[in-house]
Predict the structure.
Amino acid sequence: MVDLFDKLKMEAGPLAKYSHFADGYFTFPKLEGDIGPHMKFNGRMVLNWSLNNYLGLANHPEVRRVDAEAAAQYGLGSPMGARMMSGNSVHHVELERQLAEFEKKEDAMLLNYGYQGVVSIIDAIVDRKDVIVYDAESHACIIDGVRLHMGKRFVFGHNDMESLEKQLQRATKLVEETGGGILVITEGVFGMSGRQGDLKGVVALKEKYKFRLFVDDAHGFGTMGATGAGTGEEQGVQDKIDLYFSTFAKAMASIGAFVAGDKRIINYLRYTMRSQIYAKSLPMPLVVGAIKRLELLRTKPELKEKLWTIVRAMQSGLVDQGFNIGLTTSPVTPILFKGGVAEAAHMALDLRENFNIFCSVVIYPVVPKDVIMFRIIPTAAHTLEDVERTLKAFSALKEKLDSGYYKSLELEALAKPV
Ligand SMILES: Cc1ncc(COP(=O)(O)O)c(C=O)c1O
């Protein structure tokens, strides 16, 4: 028998074991100033590629004005209580109406946080007789929702429609015995690789198998599709998505989330979802601010066009220079290198200290052991000069990596560059 906390101190976990040198620099860094491509880090201005502020709305003057006015008018306390009891308002209802209309669904429901929301939606819509079939590279909120499920769950290979079909066959057999139903869960845009979920492929399987489809489109909302309605719109299958989810934490540059679908199912969720029934509703400034953001997202297509100008310049520039950007078909732009954790850390350090570029680096266990992934998030607020500067910096980094320079440096040599 051990003392529980002693065990935690001994087994730091896959990322915490680096905290002695990473803390405050690679992990939990403090970016200061107005949210945008140029922010202060460690006392110096850096070019920042690590915020999901896709449309540049975080610091849009109209957004800042409405946020401030709503905070002054309502305070952060309003409304008090859960939506069902005393926390509803005309603004909450109006935002839901507008989201449903934008997503071409009968109804929509606000959620306090995306992560909680997804976990709780999954929890609410399946019981032990039902089977969940989900993509192997699903976001943690999907995985955690699936973990709450008392019935069977089958995972299919990432975006692999053959594998999905096999799992649907297994699931179908099972629910024929239990009398349950099948829920398929995938994402619109996978946030690490930038790859779109094969929604068209999933939807095609509806011809052969009976299931309902839940799509987390956190990175597709506002960035994909002709009107920005997301990856369902992009692939022409929005009407076949049974439950469409997005967070406000990315293109909307705020907090909160929503789920949209058929009226009766959304109503079922309103009266069933534990994370909403047993929690205070979204504060009024967030709701009023979200209405303004949605208006800009719908009426200013130039924001999405500008985002894509930056995305195309960055992605084609990287490919032209021989970089591996994986299989992205969205703004999310990974740059993949071969190397270990020490090399990754030294590259990121070099990028920050010598090129004044801030870009998150992703290491094992998020990517395989010998892979280094820099993840660039272009936004409408970036410029083509920002792209040029970044392409040059990555070329210099690549040359050094190929020459073995970073390999010659020890991980411990990093100790506190701050
Ligand atoms: C795919 C995906 N789903 C859900 C979430 C969680 O959303 P939130 O930040 O609103 O909790 C995120 C990250 O923010 C995400 O990337």
Observations:
- The chain is about 40% helix and 15% strand.
